[in-house]
Amino acid sequence: MSKVLIVMSAADVWERTDGSAYPTGYWAEELAAPHEKFVEAGYTVDFASPRGVLQPLDKHSADPEIAGADCARHVAHAEKALREFGPLLKLDEVDINDYVAVVLPGGHGPVVDLHQDADLGRLLIEANASGKLIGAVCHGPAALLSAVDSQGHWIFAGREMTSFTDEEERLFGTAEGAPWLLGARLRELGAVYSGGLAWQQFNVRAGNLFTGQNPASSAPMAEDMIAALA
């Protein structure tokens, strides 16, 4: 049976420029929706993170006023999936050859640790070189920044992609005090970046790279990846 790897951040706080700590964690829909779609399609899904740390839930993703009326279902699915999987795999022990695809969900954690995680960078470089599918949604595309080769070249430069936009970061109230904004950083480093309307589904495919702008883009991203794998 083919396997898919979901890589989570290990971060539970996002340090702001004023030194304050903003609590963070995984965003329920961005983890639950891809997991649900891949399992329904017959794939086995593994979870991994730096050091195998289980990141907490971002409480905002359990608030229906923020995350929508269906958020309780996403929270329940994510918590059940993680509980049943058990201890997460450690990124430095993962063999990418075991998987057909890698999924990078958001929450603010990837801008804290995954964007510079050398083990993830190695896995993504190997995955991309062998044509495996790579999906990243919301703040998950920050994790793509880890994929820098031995010559210091970001392997996703020149690729079309999207992410949580700088406008959405401002509307969410987390742009001021952020050490850097994801959309701006991706553009600065050479991504061919585009974004849609705030909070609306927006997905981009560029070869084996699938990106989604926000939580609403999580399920469509997974559906696109499943269709490509088929």
Automatic annotation (TrEMBL):
Sequence ranges assigned to domain DJ-1/PfpI in this UniProt record: 29-226
Signal sequence coordinates: none
Keywords recorded for this protein, A-Z: Glutamine amidotransferase, Lyase, Stress response
Superkingdom classification of source: Bacteria
Protein family according to the UniProt entry: Belongs to the peptidase C56 family. HSP31-like subfamily.
Name this polypeptide is given: Type 1 glutamine amidotransferase domain-containing protein
